[in-house]
Design a protein that fits this description.
The chain contains seven helices and 38 strands. It is mainly beta.
């Protein structure tokens, strides 16, 4: 699959140059302008949340100062959880543990949203992503300048084929014009240490500037045995070339993280929130596997009859606890962007990018014994356990291009995106010794004794858009346009079963977006927009993908399965009265051909996903947020969101008979109420804030017979910035405390998918109270 890469590179480079020369399209800069207006001349930020004035859509931005207030190393996604309509969950304090990280907005889950970094597509950021990577691996949080959230619909030029709902756009900071350096050290709960350093070149003789940063984070899990650690290097440069500007970034990331045990409601009641994998007791893991084999639970013959058939303590099944599991990821991401005026009223930008990923998800499984497990006296590979992996490689190259033609009252924007993505995926098993664990869960596994299946997928994405923004009067602006998308995915089975070969195409040649803003006066602005979107089929053997089945199943659905589509209408009011500013919005979403997936058995077994078309989903709701600058020292922020998302249809079998009655049921993992409040204090060098977050009840079955209760948590931070000259200049000390009142709660739901009814092992507990101290110094 990689032999033709040199030719691909030449094709993409030519495409980028041609697209720029032809001036295809540019993205709207209104959110960037709003963020810029929020900054003072000295670079400090007055507004921690920018409300997207001038946008026809519901949009907010989180600024750099707000990003700095959270615990260093926190996921950039976690930083937007206070914005209206955002349901964010994770099992760790930083929101960076990828198996648990989930975000849903207005009833759309993570793989139905769009994500970009400096315009480069990140895919849907789901675990085991086939077309991108998680934002916490794409850039260190200290190198971010802002995050833009569009709750309802992203702009037409967003490079995403999954943004049925909202989009999150992340932006890296530009290099400083001044030579300098910045360093930070964080230490805290569970032996957590984070080191970050950045060196700035300042303005160079060429007129350009650059920075290079390095981050290293290492910490123990908050329960059980194991570590979660990452190393990251970011590099960015900006170089003027006449009237044009060439910029580029490179990200190198190496992540290793041990997993937490997936729980069920029954397990939490019986074993507690603190129950976890037994990674510190390999002998017990072997004993449990032997007992399971003796009881006939795994389908394997007895491996040690002497172990008996009775589980110890409160353990009732072999799935109550596993020995270990982990996620391993190596990523390299780079992009080059050329932007600027072309001629007269024409300006353009083009970005060429490449992303390579090598990953393994490991799980020490009791369902597949190692070789020789039934041979008494064997000395190697004779454990009733083995290591099951899901292995990934990504090699994707793409180009985005955009241009703006300024015709006075009309601004014409048009552009496109093309990506060629080679993705491979395999399920393999690695042998373990009975006497002692001989494999490190935080190192890539080598030497498998079996490959269950291996696939190679190729996905080619083509997207184009055109839009006109018409300034009718100084008060009224109207924008209208559409995008066209075509995604062709091809599968080729390399080894194993089930064999799945074939291709499937997702396409729509007309996805319109129309909107308007009306500025009544300096204090009031009204906006409204209507958007249609499509989510392309995923190309993987796991998750909600038409390839996550058998050849017979694929053949049966490939010509009838329809891509998910959405129609979103929203309207709102932005206001600014003295020290108070904010937004209120209502929305209505019609979601057609929603795909849901279920699988039989425990997640560790890896049974194929059973896809079903849930028909329509209707979502409607209300969102509001406001900031009150009480005084020069104090400010208050609050947001509230109400969402009602329901399935419109029952599930039908192949004969057209109702097999599952879910019509009128609430969409899984969709809380009806989300409430946030934050108080912020600044005086002299002192600063502090406290934020509260409430999430109401969430269902984790399609029939709504199982749910987790609502919960509220509070995070707090405080610190001091030195303003003196001498060695304390640029020095800052900050303390962060997460889950201040040590609330026990279920954070992530659906870690192993959702079922139609009944309790299942698909929940993850939220982290307890944790504290971190950070010392920063600018030079």
């Amino acid at each position: 699959m990689t032999g033709d890469m040199p030719m691909k590179s030449r094709i993409f480079a030519s495409a980028a140059m041609a697209a720029l020369a032809c001036a295809m399209a540019t993205s709207s800069q209104s959110a960037e302008a709003a963020a810029a207006e929020a900054a003072n001349a000295d670079g400090t930020v007055e507004e921690l949340v920018v409300y997207g004035h001038g946008e026809a859509r519901q949009v907010q931005s989180i600024t750099a100062q707000e990003i700095e207030s959270v615990a260093p190393g926190s996921s950039p996604i976690k930083m937007v959880e206070k914005l209206p309509g955002v349901n964010f969950q994770s099992a760790d304090a930083f929101g960076a543990y990828e198996w648990s990280t989930r975000i849903s907005i207005r009833g759309f889950n993570q793989n139905q949203l769009g994500f970009t970094l400096d315009g480069v597509p990140l895919g849907d950021m789901s675990y085991g992503n086939f077309n991108g990577l998680h934002i916490s691996r794409a850039i260190a949080s200290e190198d971010l300048s802002r995050v833009d959230l569009a709750q309802g619909s992203g702009s037409l030029e967003t490079a995403s084929t999954s943004n049925l709902g909202g989009t999150l756009k992340f932006f890296s900071r530009d290099p400083s014009h001044h030579l300098g350096a910045y360093g930070a050290v964080t230490g805290g709960s569970d032996n957590t240490w984070r080191f970050f350093g950045r060196v700035e070149t300042g303005d160079l003789p060429t007129g350009g500037r650059a920075y290079l940063s390095y981050a290293h984070q290492d910490g123990d899990k908050w329960k059980g045995d194991g570590e979660q650690k990452q190393q990251q290097i970011d590099f960015k440069f900006v170089q003027p070339l006449g009237q044009l500007t060439l910029s580029g970034f490179y990200d190198w990331s190496r992540r290793r993280e041990n997993d937490y045990q997936d729980l069920s409601l029954g397990m939490i009641k019986r074993l507690g929130y603190d129950w976890d994998n037994i990674s510190g007791d390999y002998a017990l893991a072997v004993r449990l596997a032997d007992i399971a084999n003796n009881r006939g639970e795994t389908g394997a013959p007895p491996t040690n009859p002497a172990a008996g058939t009775t589980y110890p303590g409160a353990i009732q099944t072999v799935d109550d606890t596993y020995y270990n599991a982990s996620g391993l990821r190596n990523d390299d991401l780079w992009a080059l962007t050329l932007a600027g005026p072309i001629a007269g009223p024409l300006s353009a930008t083009a970005t060429l990018y490449n992303h390579k990923d090598d990953g393994q998800g490991t799980w020490f499984t009791p369902y597949v014994p190692s070789p020789n497990a039934y041979t008494p006296g064997a000395t190697t590979n004779n454990s009733p356990l083995s290591v099951r992996t899901t292995e990934y490689t990504i090699d994707r190259t793409g180009v985005t291009a955009a241009a703006t033609l300024d015709l006075g009252a009309h601004q014409l924007r048009f552009g496109g995106w093309y990506e060629d993505n080679d993705f491979s995926q395999a399920r393999r098993f690695y042998g373990l010794d009975r006497a002692a664990n001989n494999r490190d869960s935080l190192k890539f596994m080598r030497g498998p004794f079996a490959t269950q299946w291996a696939y190679a997928f190729t996905t080619k994405t083509t997207q184009g858009f055109v839009e006109d923004q018409w300034t009718v009067t100084d008060q009224l602006k109207i924008n209208a346009g559409f995008k066209a998308v075509r995604v062709k995915s091809t599968s080729q089975t390399n080894v194993g079963a089930p064999v799945i070969n074939g291709e499937i195409v997702s396409k729509d040649s007309f996805l319109p977006q129309v909107g308007a803003t009306y500025r009544l006066d300096g204090a009031n602005e009204f906006f409204a927009t209507y958007t249609e979107n499509m989510r392309a089929f995923g190309a993987a053997h796991t998750g909600l993908s038409p390839f996550a089945t058998t050849q017979e199943g694929f053949n049966a659905i490939r010509n009838t399965l329809q891509p998910e589509t959405s129609k979103t209408g929203e309207a709102g009011w932005r206001f600014r009265y003295g020290p108070v500013q904010g937004v209120a919005a209502v929305y209505y979403v019609k979601f057609d051909d929603r795909l849901i997936g279920t699988s039989a058995g425990a997640g560790i077994v890896g049974n194929p996903t059973i896809l079903a078309n849930a028909g329509g989903v209707t979502s409607k709701g209300f969102e509001t947020a406001a900031t009150w600058s009480v005084s020069e020292d104090w400010s208050l922020f609050g947001s509230y969101a109400y969402n009602d998302s329901q399935y419109d249809d029952d599930i039908l079998n192949a004969a057209g008979v109702v097999s599952q009655r879910i019509s009128g049921k609430t969409v899984v993992d969709t809380p009806k109420h989300l409430l946030n409040g934050q108080v912020t204090f600044h005086h002299g060098g002192w600063f502090a804030n406290a934020s509260a977050h409430y999430t109401s009840k969430r269902f984790f079955t399609y029939t709504n017979d199982q749910s987790v209760p609502g919960y509220a948590t509070v995070d707090a931070s405080a610190g001091y910035r030195f303003a003196d000259e001498g060695w304390t200049k640029g020095l800052e000390v900050q303390v962060n405390v997460t889950n201040l009142f040590d609330k026990s709660y279920v954070a992530t739901i659906g870690s192993n998918g959702f079922g139609y009814s009944g309790d299942s092992q698909t929940l993850l507990a939220g982290a307890p109270r944790q504290a971190f101290v950070t010392v920063r110094k600018a030079f």
